[in-house]
Write a structure and sequence with these properties.
This protein is of the alpha/beta class and about 300 residues long. About 25% of the residues lie in helices and about 25% in strands. It has helices at about 40-45, 70-80, 95-105, 160-165, 175-180, 195, 220-225, 240-245, 250-260, 280-290; strands spanning about 5-10, 25-30, 30-35, 55-60, 85-90, 115-120, 125-130, 135-140, 145-155, 160, 185, 190, 200, 205-210, 230, 265-270, 290-295, 300.
């Protein structure tokens, strides 16, 4: 099943000629989730051939403009293209007021319903769940209320070993129980151990998105062992004082976070416009966590 992240934007507050503000698409089993929606996001979606109508859930981390100034344009385009399906928007509660006032003064009534899900920036919560997936918030440490997001696949059922099922003549009626990890007891009283009849499925995968935050060890338990961590890296460590002042993180601190939480892979982004080239940020993060990549626009990161 597909689990991949496409970077649409990775600049910080000011866009540059080469980089757009924050936006990412997460594709899980051909369901598309948009995380943050900085200025120009819909242009980037066009560039990378991501269809608007496939987006049914949008997650906005906080209300600094580089994370949501592209949203109103995207909502308008969806309206103009005839969307009628409801859209779920997970965000700080004040975003509804911002959207409503723009719709009011443009005299626009959307053809589709926006269902708002207000985020609690004081307590981590599961904000979406279905049969395959959960999404939970991460409480970040920024100047205004801000949350990250963890996308986790649910644990998959165990896989039946066909040869063993045939050998021991296990009935179909027992398959569901076996997949849940239970042993099988025959009417004769013989017990067949689960690990003889089944094998583990592929491990559930996970992706964590940490947008704007100061270095923040309180979130480490949620990040532990995730497959892919995106962490902001606005500055090099020689600007630590500036990072602390603005509640941002250095590339070195992002690497330390990845190392301490034992994630499998780190993506760094939210780069300050002062950095024309990004190798210095990448190299600094790699001093702490070698398996680090830059969140470059248009690059698709696949979680195996």
């Amino acid at each position: 099943m597909t689990f991949e992240v496409t970077i649409l934007g990775s600049s910080s507050a000011s866009p540059t000629y080469q980089r757009h503000p924050s936006a990412q698409i997460v594709n899980i089993s051909e369901r598309f989730f948009l995380i943050d929606c900085g200025e120009g996001t819909q242009i980037q979606m066009e560039r990378y051939k991501i269809k608007y109508h496939r987006i049914n859930r949008i997650f906005i981390s906080h209300l600094h403009g580089d994370h949501f100034f592209g949203l109103m344009g995207l909502l308008s385009t969806m309206h103009l293209q005839g969307r009628t399906k409801e859209l779920h928007l997970y965000s700080p509660k004040e975003l509804k007021e911002i959207i409503d006032i723009q719709l009011l003064y443009s005299q626009t009534k959307l053809r589709y319903e926006i269902i708002y899900h207000n985020l609690n920036a004081d307590k981590s919560e599961v904000i979406f769940e279905d049969e395959q997936l959960t999404v939970e918030t991460i409480i970040l440490n920024h100047r205004i209320p801000c949350t990250g997001f963890v996308f986790r696949e649910k644990r998959k059922p165990r896989k039946l070993i066909k040869e063993q099922i045939t050998k021991y003549e296990i009935p179909v009626s027992a398959f569901t129980s076996l997949k849940m990890g239970n042993d099988y007891t025959h009417e004769s009283g013989n017990v067949y151990k689960n690990d003889v009849l089944t094998e583990p499925s592929k491990s559930a995968r996970s992706y964590a998105y940490c947008s704007d935050t100061a270095y923040n060890e309180s979130m480490f338990p949620q990040l532990k062992d995730v497959d892919l961590l995106y962490h902001e890296s606005t500055f090099l460590h020689d600007m630590l004082d500036r990072a602390n002042e603005t509640f941002h993180t250095t590339a070195k601190q992002a690497g330390i976070t990845a190392k301490k939480t034992k994630v499998k892979r780190l993506l760094i982004g939210h780069f300050s416009a002062r950095y024309k080239e990004l190798d210095s940020l990448l190299n600094e993060a790699k001093t702490e966590f070698p398996n680090t990549d830059l969140a470059l626009e248009g690059v698709k990161f696949i979680i195996e």
